[in-house]
Write a structure and sequence with these properties.
The chain is mainly alpha-helical. Helices cover 58% and strands 3% of the residues. It is built from nine helices and two strands; from the N terminus they run ααααββααααα. A two-stranded antiparallel ribbon has the order 1-2. A hairpin with a 6-residue loop joins strand 1 and strand 2 (86-88). The longest helix is centred in the middle third of the chain and has 21 residues, at 102-122.
Length: 174
């Protein structure tokens, strides 16, 4: 409780994992220390203070992703009917679960809504560090888009916008 200043449940779990399984290779320790140094005092410090506010809005993305992923049967094989071979299920209606109770359905829609909103907040993180002069390769990797050598998908906002444009979360919740 003295060192946990994380802003999300995922951050708390990550900190706990780091404390329970500390790094032992000097090069890894130095890389992580470089990131912390840059976030605390470098040109990235301003971006980090704004990112903390966004991270509060993301919720528990890790668990929400797991719940949403488990909603469908995604990737189960089925017989395509022509030659008897199995083909991967790709159409969403093939994974639909019919006749579920209202309580379960409402929870699933709520989880999906929270996930979309959390991902939308997280998608803004690369913009916060756009003008920062980042020296640490590890930090650059986690705050830059794939177009700039990072991990954030460069088209993440466009893909999320598609969901918000085509899925009425309020109607679905009802």
């Amino acid at each position: 409780s003295k060192i946990d200043a994380t802003q999300s449940p995922h951050g708390s779990r990550l900190l706990r994992a780091w404390l329970l399984r500390p790094l032992f290779r000097k090069v890894d320790i130095d890389r992580r220390a470089d990131v912390v140094e840059e976030l605390v005092g470098g040109s990235s410090a301003m971006g980090m203070s704004e990112a903390r506010a966004l991270l509060k809005k993301t919720g528990d993305i890790e668990r929400l992703l797991s719940r949403v992923h488990s909603m469908g049967g995604g990737g189960q094989a089925r017989n395509n009917g022509n030659d008897g071979t199995a083909a991967a299920t790709t159409h969403p209606s093939d994974r639909a679960v019919l006749y579920e109770g209202a309580k379960n359905t409402k929870r699933k829609v709520g989880d999906f809504s929270k996930l979309l909103n959390g991902l939308r907040a997280a998608a803004n993180i690369p913009e916060l560090f756009e003008n920062a002069d980042i020296h640490s390769p590890l930090l650059a990797k986690i705050v830059r888009t794939t177009d700039n050598g990072g991990c954030f998908p460069s088209d993440m906002k466009e893909k999320l916008d598609w969901f918000f444009d085509n899925f009425d979360l309020k109607k679905a919740a009802k």
